[in-house]
Structures are given as C-alpha cells and as structure tokens.
Design goal:
This protein is α/β, with parallel strands linked by helices. Helix content is about 25%, strand content about 30%. It contains twelve helices and 26 strands. The radius of gyration is 23 Å and the shape is globular. It starts with a strand and ends with a helix. The relative contact order is 0.11.
C-alpha cells in the first residue's frame, strides 16, 4: 500500500511513525515544505527568550531517524495539486502516486490588513524561520519596546519572552480581556495582574490601525502613536485549506472530516490544525489546533488505515501554559460562551491554596468549574495558580471526557499530603459551590 502524507509537522510526522508501527510493509512518503520533520511550535517563544538555547533544539527527531524507519522523505518540496482521479499528488519535483493520502497541512498565521504590517521589524511567530528572523533582528537592532497585537496564547508567550529580554512590552487586544476564547473575564484578570507585575502592559477593546516606519518605530492605536521597535502580530491562525478546496474536498473553517478523519473522499484523510472536528460541548464543528490533538488524530488515522475501527472523539480542547511562573489551564466552554450559545449552566468557583493553610509555601490557586444544568455534566473548567495546575486540569478534563456529573466531582477521591495538597482538594470545593446552584 502506498501512503502519502502531505505535511511534515506534528500531525504528519507522528502519523508516519504510527503507521510504520502498524504496517511494516507499507510504502510511506512524507512531503513537506520545510527542510526538517516535526518540531515543537509551542516551544518557539522559549527560544526567543533564551530558555531554549537554539532554534534547532526544538526539533524532535533528526530526519535520519525517519529514514531509518524506512519512511521516504521529500522535504523542501511544494505540493501543487491533488489529482483524485489518477490518485497522484503533483509536486514541484514530480508526481507521487498514492492509495491513501493524509493531509497534515497545518495552519498559517493570520495577518490582518494593517497598514505597514509588511514593514521591517514586524513578525509572526509560527515557524522556526520566524524565530530565526526575530532573534537576528533583536541581535542587530537591540529593540527596547515591543508591541504585541493579540492576547491569545502565542501573543502572551511572545510578550513574556520579550519582557524576559528586558523590553518594555505592550499587548493590544480587540476583545475586553486576554485569552478571550479560553478564559472568562474573572480568571483572565488574575493572569493580567501577574503579567503587569512583570512589566507587561495591556490595552483592551482597541486595535492597531497602522505600523509606522521600516524598521518600525511606532504603532497607531486609534489616533495615538505609541513607540515601538518591534511588533509581533499574534492574531490567531487559519487552517490551510487551499489544497483540499482545489481538489474538490468539503471545506468549511477547516477540511471537513468524519469520526475516522476521512474527508469527503474516503481515500483522503485530514489531521492536525487543518482538520475540522466536533466540539464535545456544543456538537458543532470546530478546529482543535493543539499539538496534543494533532498526535491523537495521527494515531486514529493510522489505525483506521490499518483496518482498525478507530474513531476520533469530540474535543474539549484542553490546554495549559505558564506565564512568569503562573500556570493557566483550561478546557471546554467558558461561562461567556455558554450564555451566548443559550446553554444553561451552574458555575462553581473557589480561591484557595495549593497546600494546607498550616503548611508553609502554599501558592494561590483559583478553580472555576462549569456544569450544564440539563444533565448536570461537567463541560468546562479554568484553573489559574502558582503550581500543580496541570494535574488538576487534566483530572477535570478526563472526568468531562467520561461524562462526569457535578456529584462525581464533588465526591471525587483525591490524594492528600501536607507538602503537596490539602485534604479537600480545590477542584472538589469548586464543584461543591456549583452543586449549591442546582438545589
């Protein structure tokens, strides 16, 4: 069987490895624009800050590793089109036939039509090449003031990196809070306060209308000119759908797939940032542009091609980050989004400590849990704290994936030791607060 993968990022690289484990004889070819296989885009801000020394350090495996698995690599290669009738992929280096085709074409940074956005000193943060350009610019021009457009995950992590390098950082966001798709205003305020204490300032409900100078020297916010020596555009990403659309596949926000990750052509699969899947809370189509989702999609697609009855489950989009030592974890629906969607909810919130009150060194933690009133099920959570957020958000996400109710969380068996956690865990206390709203 000839299996061709278009895209050498997280989804494409992992698919190739999963597929090789399942089928030792398949002819697997990976076609990618970049010269390397999988690297971690989430690590890129840490390369800028210097926490990770070199851009090349975020490459997961060298190309030779895949070649030793008898995976054919066509890197530095552009796919021009897909001929579904002849079952060939047309590239700038010739045609590649397939029996099964996997589109792992990812996403691209969305750059809004701001005047001057093409000027020197204006960057996106999506690829290794982006990081190399930013680091070279910083080394050459030694910028003192950075403006970040967009307060999502990439924007905030970029802002942290610039602040750690000693820059004065301003984040400009059109919405009324940071991380607007992941946090409600109350939890976002905690993150904002922490970042402000580390020298990052914010302007909400405003946008940058112009970038002035090349190299950049200022940005225009409304009619005000704000000095800037470097600008990062972090206004989200868009799924790469052009190739699929030109091939006549069903496309919406992303490439439409079924539960097996097959497109409208059953011999073509789509995985990773480009694939449009199902939201676990609303049942509507959504994008799940997370590295963890890309790996799970890769596994499901490989298993299905190998003949297993594998399905990709609806997503809660569980995510976590750390900013200046503050951990932020989130999944599912926010309170604001639930109201807009007409979902009646019960919310529980608890502010406490990560350790018992009598034990020194405990750090503040805020847990917010969201339950659907109609069936009492957990459908969202937000946790912000100084430590051990990861384990708690993972626990709540796992419970939600198994259909846990408010009572399941209230009476959850948890672990206790004074140096690690209190006898009554903050997640169960938050659930107790929500339970009261059902009575």
């Amino acid at each position: 069987m000839k299996i061709v993968v278009v895209g050498s990022g997280t989804a494409g690289s992992n698919f190739a490895l999963f597929m090789r484990k399942l089928d030792r004889k398949a002819e697997i070819t990976v076609i990618g624009k970049e010269e390397t296989m999988q690297y971690s885009p989430c690590a890129l801000p840490h390369v800028i800050s210097g926490t990770i020394e070199k851009p090349e350090d975020v490459i997961v495996f060298p190309n030779e590793f895949y070649e030793r698995q008898k995976i054919n690599l066509m890197l530095g290669t552009e796919v021009k089109s897909i001929d579904r009738k002849r079952k060939v992929v047309v590239t700038d280096k010739g045609e590649v036939p397939y029996d099964k085709l996997v589109l792992a074409v990812g996403s691209k940074a969305f750059v809004p039509p701001i005047k001057g956005v093409e000027n020197e000193g204006v960057f996106t943060l999506k690829s290794l090449d982006d990081v190399r350009k930013i680091k070279a610019y910083i080394a050459e021009r030694k910028p003192k003031r950075a403006v970040v457009i967009g307060a999502g995950l990439i924007g905030l992590e970029g802002a942290e990196a610039f602040a750690k390098l000693g820059m004065e950082v301003l984040v400009v966001e059109l919405m009324n809070r940071l991380m607007p798709t992941m946090l409600d205003k109350d939890t976002a305020k905690i993150v904002q306060k922490e970042m402000e204490e580390h020298g990052v300032s914010f302007r909400f409900n405003e946008g940058v209308s112009e970038i002035i100078g090349s190299p950049v020297r200022a940005v225009k916010i409304g009619e005000e000119e704000v000095p800037a020596d470097l600008v990062l555009v972090a206004t989200g990403v868009r799924a790469n759908t052009d190739l699929a659309k030109a091939a006549g596949l069903d496309v919406h926000w992303g490439i439409v797939v079924n539960e097996h990750l097959q497109t409208s052509d059953p011999d073509i699969y789509a995985i990773g940032d480009c694939a449009e899947v199902i939201d676990a809370v609303t049942g509507e189509r959504t994008l799940s542009q997370l590295g963890t989702s890309a790996v799970r999609m890769a596994k499901v697609a490989a298993e299905h091609i190998a003949g297993k009855d594998a399905s990709f489950r609806p997503v809660f989009n569980t995510a976590i980050t750390e900013l200046f030592g503050l951990e932020i974890g989130t999944f599912g629906i926010t309170e604001e989004r639930a109201k807009k969607a007409g979902v009646e909810i019960a919310v529980g919130k608890f502010k406490g400590s990560t350790k018992p009150e009598y034990y020194p060194g405990g750090k503040p933690i805020t847990v917010k849990v969201i339950f659907r009133k109609s069936d009492r099920k957990l459908i969202g959570a937000q946790i912000v704290g100084g430590e051990r957020v990861w384990g708690r958000i993972m626990t709540l996400s796992a419970l939600a994936q198994k259909g846990a109710t408010v009572e399941d969380v209230v009476y959850l068996e948890t672990a206790y030791a004074p140096p690690i956690s209190p006898t009554i865990d903050p997640i169960t206390v938050a659930a107790e607060m929500a339970l009261r709203r059902f009575r």
